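chain below, 229 aa
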Amino acid sequence: MKRKVIVAVGAHPDDIEFGCPVTLLNFKEKGYEIHYIIATNGENGFKVKSLSSKERIDIRKKEQLTAAGKVGVKEIHFLGYKDGFLDYNDNLREKLTLLFKELKPEIVFSFDPANMEFDNINLNHRDHRNIALAVFDAVFAAKNDFIYPDKNGKHRIEKLYFFGTHKPNYEYDITDKLNFKLDVLSSFKSQFPNFENFAKFFKENIGRDSAKYKYAEVFRVVDIVQISY
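prediction:
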């Protein structure tokens, strides 16, 4: 049986959980192997000021492992960049490209690089913008023999699922799985010390992006057309 892999990429612990955990669970139940790539340590989004940087990093990593375990993620690849200072450079693109060549995903999830509306300071955070661009360019580089050559060879990804988009073309109904999504998000206790208040806010605001469903995860899905030659 052919191994089917999905890679979801976030800038911080909890990005993927906001964007697509129910959709990923659905793919997991269909037999896909799920991997996460988390670019930064998430230490500067912390709500408690009295802890050291190392303590904050350790807590954020443990929370991410807990959340991913609820989805059934096979492995998390932590890149270890500083939260709030993620640059789009060749180092980041190379790391992503080599992971794509190694893991060989059929589908990649991440932020939408086309969303430059700058109407939400959280969604359009610098780290989110830079990881989105780096993922897009790494998908191109992964299918090339000469850009970051690697023993694993080139790999062609088939689809991109962009969350945090302003032009969705696909909505996945999560109404019956809303409690699961909230349970996954509750793993991040350092971010939501009063989770009941956050859950109420989520239900009334964040989770209602869809005109079609009560609650949905929405994406701009891009089919990658490969040029035959």
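The chain has one domain: 5-223. The mean pLDDT is 94.
thats it, cya
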